[in-house]
Amino acid sequence: MATAASATNLEPSVSSFVERKHKMLIDGKWTESASGKTFPTFNPATGDVLSEVAEGDREDINRAVKAARAAFESGPWSKLTPSERGRLIWKLADLIEKHTEELAQIESLDNGKPLTVARAADAPLAADLFRYMAGWATKIEGTTIPLSVPYTPGTQYFAYTLREPVGVVGQIIPWNFPLLMAAWKLGPALACGCTVVLKPAEQTPLSALWLGELIEEAGLPAGVVNIVPGYGETAGAALAAHPDVDKVAFTGSTEVGKLILQAAAGNLKKVSLELGGKSPNVVFADADRKSAIAGAAGAIFFNHGQCCCAGSRLYVEDKIFDEVVDGVAQRANRIRMGPGLETGTQMGPLVSEEQLRRVCGYLESGKAQGAKAVAGGERMGEKGYFVKPTVLVNTNDKMKIVQEEIFGPVVTAIPFRDPEELLPKANDSVYGLAAGVWSSDIKKAHALASKLRAGTVWINCYNIFDAALPFGGYKQSGWGREMGRQALELYTETKAVCAAL
Ligand code: NAI
Ligand code: MG
Question: Which segments within 38-99 are labelled E, that is strand?
């Protein structure tokens, strides 16, 4: 395993931002937490404290919800035209683009991902998402509906629908793509005219706080977006349960997704959930070997496997099983590991000590149940939260490592004989977020795509995201779809208006 060399120099604005004691954004003002408490965020490459951040709790959530309610009901937000709203969102996208380097550096420092990845993917995808949603602000339309009411013969009606913002929205996001998840959540909510209280993950609050400054610079009115960093069990739980929040949108673990549902029951707020995954990636013998091998490696190792849609179950047709597994293992062994900010780094550390322990626990469990590592299989070094890219064979569908989400750079490889044998295995999961199919027989690939119980199926590609393409899960991978026009459904209510003529 090669180690990367020299570190990138931080932008002066990033150094001073990181050193600052961070506040929360409520009603257009940067404020301390009501309790005065702060919490540390860590550099996962070293385990050292990076920044101190105001720790939001129930009281801060209350203040933020109050500000969001006022901005929604009577503030300038509700009085803006859709075009004006769209222009502000577009301006925010321009500002993200302008600050790509700073945002990418912050993301790399706080989350551990390679700077090159944050530059090429996280920041541009966030800007693109806001631009795409800015365009929707002026296109959220209702319909006219012809009626045939049987018990009022002779009366004519004019009936139509309006799409109205759902109201005050609570958004709770994870640490794997901190800026991008903020964009996925904020973009459609703002396009629809909602106001927001956003709670970033406690592991990675920094890019959302920088985004808060850009939101101010873009000119969004006070109270439209409130950002309250803090822990899930306190700030997150208070937001999910808040009686004056109309909708909660959550991305994270399936376990917490179920808690969100329970918390939301009190006022029956609307709920959308993006949860875990254990996505099958299927390679047929007629696939282009080179791209299938590269694709299978990318499917699991991108973002260190910390993707809800990671291709973590690799199913390979038995004729080419050894060749593909060997190819993926070789790629795993070539990945250059190091701190995200070092030039040449291709894989950084996992986000936290907790995740390091969790992933290593799965590696132990796999070993104990008879799995064999043909690449990786262990932690790298003693400092930072690095886990070697790992390929496991001698696995079967009953093992914990094949059933449960590992959320690390760990793939299990299993051979299959034909599509009939493969399909029930591929669908044998409580999750249904994504799947991959590699084949040069386009008929076979589409036939399988139609039978896979997953919200996204990639054919001869993997991890392709676009602001226009809906994303979300079947089964316990979640409720609702983010991105694309489907995202507007999460943030609007439909009103039917019926007038007797
Ligand atoms: P988590 O689900 O606990 O955290 C995600 C977000 O939810 C964070 O903002 C957290 O503060 C918040 N949260 C936690 N408990 C809450 C509660 N009771 N009420 C309201 N909000 C709450 O995920 P965690 O613990 O960081 O990671 C554990 C596992 O979850 C990972 O190993 C992975 O399997 C999965 N995960 C899935 C993600 C996805 O993209 N679908 C993202 C992050 C984690
Ligand atoms: Mg948790």
Answer: 38-42, 49-54
Query: Which atom from ligand 1 is nearest to the alpha carbon of 478?
Result: 41
- Other beta carbons within 10 angstroms of residue 207's beta carbon come to 29
What's the total number of domains in the chain?
Answer: 2
Q: Residue 15 contacts by C-beta under 8 Å, 6 or more apart in sequence?
A: none
Residue 377 Rama label (left phi>0; alpha psi -120 to 50; beta): left
Ligand 1 atom with least separation from CA of 359: 32
255 and 154 share one domain: yes
What is the Å distance from ligand 1's center to 253 Cα? 5
Atom of ligand 1 nearest to the CA of 181: 40
Same domain, 160 and 102: yes
C-alpha distances out from residue 405 to 41, 312, 412, 461, Å: 25, 8, 11, 21
On whether the CB atoms of residues 325 and 393 are closer than 8 A, the answer is yes
Give the distance (Å) from ligand 2 centre to CA of residue 253: 7
The yes-or-no answer on residue 11 being catalytic is no
193 with 319, same domain: the answer is no
Question: Which residue's alpha carbon is nearest to atom 9 within ligand 1?
Answer: 201
Assigned token pair, 459? 């054919």
Tens place of pLDDT for every residue, the chain, 501 residues? 444 457 788 999 999 999 999 999 999 999 999 999 999 999 999 999 999 999 999 999 999 999 999 999 998 999 999 999 999 999 999 999 999 999 999 999 999 999 999 999 999 999 999 999 999 999 999 999 999 999 999 999 999 999 999 999 999 999 999 999 999 999 999 999 999 999 999 999 999 999 999 999 999 999 999 999 999 999 999 999 999 999 999 999 999 999 999 999 999 999 999 999 999 999 999 999 999 999 999 999 999 999 999 999 999 999 999 999 999 999 999 999 999 999 999 999 999 999 999 999 999 999 999 999 999 999 999 999 999 999 999 999 999 999 999 999 999 999 999 999 999 999 999 999 999 999 999 999 999 999 999 999 999 999 999 999 999 999 999 999 999 999 999 999 999 999 999
Test site for ligand 1: of 253, 274, 463, most ligand atoms within 8 A of the Cβ: 253
192 is known as an active-site residue = no
CATH code of residue 101: 3.40.605.10
Instruction: Using the mean position of ligand 1's atoms as its centre, give its distance from the Cα of residue 434 in Å.
Output: 19
Domain limits for position 38: 4-275+478-497
